[in-house]
Amino acid sequence: MKRVRTEQFQYTVAQYLKRRQYVESEGPPKGPKLSQTAEEMATNLTVQTESGCTNFVSAAPCQADSQQYEIQFGQLRTFLTDTNVQWSREVTSVLYPLFVYLHLDMVHCGLKSSVDSFYSRFHNMFLQDTDQKDIIEQLRTTLTVQDISSNPKLRAFLDNKYVVHLTDEAYNYLLRYLQSDNNTALCRVLASHIQVEVTSTQRTVYQLYGSGPSGVGGFSRGDASNNMEPGDVPASILQNEAARNSLQECIKRVKDGPPSLTTVCFYAFHNTDQLLNSAEISANSKLLAAGFDNSCVKLWSLRARKLKAEPHQVDVSRINLACDVLEDESEDEDSAGTEMKTLRGHCGPVYSTTFLTDSSGLLSCSEDTTIRYWNLGSFTNTALYQGHAYPVWDIDISPCSLYFASGSHDRTARLWTFSRTYPLRLYAGHLADVDCVKFHPNSNYIATGSTDKTVRLWSTQQGNSVRLFTGHRGPVLSLAFSPNGKYLASAGEDQRLKLWDLASGALFKDLRGHTNNITSLSFSPDSSLIASASMDNSVRVWDIRNTYCNAPADGSSSELVGVYTGQISNVLSVQFMACNLLLTTGTTQENQEH
Questions:
Q1: 565: buried, middle or exposed (CB in 10 Å: 19+, 13-18, 0-12)?
Q2: pLDDT band per the 50, 70, 90 thresholds, residue 551
Q3: Contact indicator for 352, 394 with CB cutoff of 8 Å
Q4: Rounded distance between C-alpha atoms, residue 162 and residue 238, angstroms
Q5: Cα separation of 264 and 561, whole Å?
Q6: How many Cα atoms within 13 Å fall on the side-chain side of residue 109?
Q7: What's the pLDDT tens digit per position in 432-463?
Q8: Pick from 425, 494, 422: nearest CA to 455
Q9: What sign does the dihedral 294-295-301-307 (CA atoms) show?
Q10: Is 218 a residue whose pLDDT tops 50?
Q11: Separation CA 540–CA 556 (nearest Å)
Q12: What distance in Å separates the CA atoms of residue 331 and residue 352, rounded to the nearest whole number?
């Protein structure tokens, strides 16, 4: 019975399509495709925008909104002219026939005002070409259907398809743009009046020397070496090999050569009255968090977008918690957002803050011996971690945000996970405060720096000490691992920056130049540069690979490549970001006029 009903439905649909003069298709309808041709896109977009139903094809002769002709063509022109993609110039050849056919389509639909605006805005693009200029000038006086009928050249445009030749890559580049937005008018013209001839590009040298089977579209490396003499290799392949070798040589010279100058962006805090203890910028450079002596954490937006809490899934408007709500905020500020949020919950000075990798949360540690997790969607404290018996000086989150570590005045470091409020591991061995902690890029090791003037490397899972680095003459205040995992940098009150080779456990470099305590370190993404911030109000950048200049006159190490100073009284932190950008935070001089 079900089979009979299915056959009846298929017969009814086939008769309906036949009455609408559609070509009868063989076999069942296919599912949705991952890629579409211009004709398929024109049909689908027309259905979606004009008929509103995917089962019927609209037969409307022109675009419903007359402004869409000008908008869609203008967006395509901007897209092709403002990008440096290699296929943009090739796809630009489509603009001329699109302009002509869109103009004629608007004339056919009687959109006189839109025709005038469209022509006056875009016709200057095609006046440089003599052949195109003739047609463009004729379009100036073409305002009615009769004008088109009386002009044999324009009639020829409508009676025939304009042929455009594109390579396969350029054609796919155009299709991806047309699929990215509502381009119904453009797709209709491409489907009805323009014939795109797609030519496949020649295979590259990397494909020719691939490991594919011999005799199928190319040859293998073994065939080339055994059956072909060097003189038999095509000249184009030899040229590609030479170009590749030249490119590799250029890359090697850039890597081995002197480093490029670093761009420094400085965020200054005003009127802090010596209450600011730490500052941290999120990995996406959108948020800035700072810990203060008055037990609060403040959060700023570094972009134009203001900070706005997500709506609560549960109505808690009548519940006032002391750790979350200590001051009244107007409903207008809650709805529009603010440039700064104050996070309250600690009952002692906040010494360190750090963001999760995806910037969805924030950790803070305090003199009150606790660590708090703040949800940056609602700007509330959602977890409290207790385990230390004395103030917590520093915290760090593992690269994948699975664990975090803390260092305390109780001479221990501890490993935590976000799902448990108690520590998983306890690392004991230092003889004084653990001032700083840092995760290795592979998360298998944790480094700790202490007031006992030593640096220890711990196994994250086993909990035992695997390296002991000695040589500092004062407390170690800052640590940093190189992104490639080979080196550990440490610095502190002895004003020396030491680089340790993790494989051998030996001292790799000892960099001097600062004249006061070094408080922050950061490696560049390629591990070639390291930046250091000091209480001498300077930021110094060092090249740890080679030496390219003589030792500076002030006695600094020859690895020094840049010194940055300004009207500041204290530099709190340095952080390398992508594109060789160094973000610095600090406080301004109190006597400076703002």
A1: exposed
A2: low
A3: yes
A4: 38
A5: 13
A6: 20
A7: 999 999 999 999 999 999 999 999 999 999 99
A8: 494
A9: negative
A10: no
A11: 10
A12: 31
Whole-number Å distance between alpha carbons of 280 and 265: 14
**CB neighbour class for 183 (10 Å; exposed up to 12, middle 13-18, buried from 19):** buried
Q: Find all residues with CB under 8 Å of 199, minimum gap 6, and list them.
A: 165, 166, 167, 168
Tokens coding 74: 């203008």
Does residue 364 register a pLDDT over 90?
yes
| Whole-angstrom distance, CA of residue 101 vs CA of residue 73 | 11
| Locus of tokens 């190189």 | 482
Q: Quick check: 233 pLDDT over 90?
A: no
Which amino acid type is present at position 283?
A
- State the residue for tokens 């095609």: 126
Written as six digits, the tokens of 579 are 């594109």
Long-range contacts of residues 502-508, Cβ cutoff 8 Å, at least 24 apart: 502/457, 502/467, 505/467, 505/469, 507/469, 507/471, 508/544
Q: How far apart are CA 69 and CA 145, in angstroms?
A: 18
Pairing relationship of beta strands 361-366 and 370-375 according to DSSP bridges:
antiparallel
d(CA 78, CA 177): 12
Residue 170 pLDDT exceeds 50: yes
* 584, 533 contact by CB (below 8 A): yes
Start-to-end CA span in the chain (Å):
86
| Non-local CB neighbours of 407 within 8 Å, separated by 6+ positions | 392, 393, 394, 395, 413, 433, 434, 435, 436, 437, 448
Sheet holding 487-492, edge to edge: 476-481, 487-492, 496-501, 507-512
Q: Write down the residue that tokens 């950061």 correspond to.
A: 522
DSSP string, 438-461: EE-TTSSEEEEEETTSEEEEEETT
Nearest to 98 by CA among 169, 36, 188: 188
CA-to-CA dists, residue 271 to 349, 489, 574, 588, angstroms = 18, 32, 21, 8
CB contact at 8 A, 399 and 444: no
Q: What share of the chain is helix, strand, coil (3-state, %, to 5)?
A: 30, 30, 40
Query: Angle CA(313)–CA(383)–CA(282) in degrees, nearest 5?
Result: 90
User: What is the pTM for the complete model shown?
Assistant: 0.56
